[in-house]
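Reviewer 2 asked us to include a model.

Predict the structure of this chain.
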Amino acid sequence: MKQRLSCVVAFTGLLSTGVYAQNITHAELTKCASIEQNDTRLACFDRLMHTEQAQAASPRPPAPPQAAPQPPIESTAKAGAVAASQTPTAPVRKSEPVAEFGMEAQRQREQAVDEISATITQVAKDPRGKYIITLDNDMVWKQQDTDYFRPKKGDLATVERGALGVFYFAVESGNRRIKVKRLK
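Predicted model (structure tokens):
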């Protein structure tokens, strides 16, 4: 197993080096490697990599714009409408999505409510003996675990968000809480 894994890692490493070293010749690498002074040798290798990265990052020339056929203009009112519709709009910023990359979940957590409180309006049990609790804000929660818990109609309840998408249900008159799932 270890041998297979090391072969896969080595093969992947060879493939990735082939992609980056396409434009750097062996002679250039040998020339840099033969330099005695450390700083000068490092500067030589850095210069090779910077030129390689600059070549890889150079944009392709844009395609020539093609003129779209324009319909004949029948009146001056239509001409103004056509001219207004053809005015260039503000360019869409691509930096905003890039700046937000990886922060979407953080933004959602900042906007999410961590805890709610409401009064219990109805308490029922399902066929397996787990509580189904209705609150005065029309939320319905179902017990997920089998812990001992006795909610009563009229109790002030608190539902709080836990780790990994779990919700905990507690009543003000008790010191226990149960794991719940929202049904409605």
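The helical segments are 2-20, 26-33, 38-57, 76-85, 95-100, 104-111. Strands lie at 115-125, 131-135, 140-143, 156-161, 167-171, 177-182. We have added this to the supplementary material.
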